[in-house]
Amino acid sequence: MDIKTASALHRLRLISVPEALSFPALLIFGSLLSRVSDIDYLMMPLGILHGILFVIYAVFLLDVWNKAKWPLKKVALFFLFALLPFGGLYGDRLLKRDEADSVIAARAREAAQA
Fold first, then answer.
1. Half-sphere exposure of residue 12, counting CA atoms within 13 Å on the CB side?
2. How many domains are contained in the chain?
3. What are the mean pLDDT values of the chain's consecutive 10-residue runs (114 residues total)?
4. For residues 24 and 4, what is the distance between their CA atoms, to the nearest angstrom?
5. Which domain holds residue 82?
6. Residue 32: what pLDDT?
7. Nearest in space to 83 (alpha carbons), one of 37, 19, 31
8. Beta-carbon neighbour count of residue 104 at 10 Å?
């Protein structure tokens, strides 16, 4: 793997945790808040924020699929992580390993060429 693959994996890791926490933290909290109070105007911005994080996650996942040449099964698994509350936290742990491996491989390749 090269450094572009490592940076794509890093970008996916950066968005996976906020996306994983946006469903339970934002949408469930906003839904509960709107039911126990008169604050109904929060649901739309919270939903939009969650949607934006999900779309960014999906775009970064497609980028990783393209650069890392992942099999479709692995991409589907990480997409499933985005659909499950807190699923991205487990995905982040898996990505951390892949990212570390790709950085080590890129540095070894650079050292071999030098």
1. 33
2. 1
3. 80 91 80 78 81 95 92 94 87 83 77 81
4. 32
5. 3-113
6. 81
7. 19
8. 12
- CB-based contacts of 21-24 (< 8 A; 24+ apart in sequence): 21/86, 21/88, 21/89, 22/49, 22/50, 22/53, 22/54, 23/50, 23/85, 24/85, 24/86
Residue 93 identity (one-letter amino acid): R
- φ, ψ for residue 12, nearest 5 deg: -65, -40
CA 73 – CA 87 distance, rounded (Å): 16
Q: Whole-angstrom Cα distance, residue 38 to residue 51?
A: 23
The model carries a pTM of: 0.81
Helices (H) and strands (E) in the chain, counts: 5, 0
What sign does the CA torsion over 61, 66, 71, 73 have?
Answer: positive
- Residue of 62, 69, 61 lying closest to 95 (CA atoms): 61
What's residue 1's pLDDT?
62
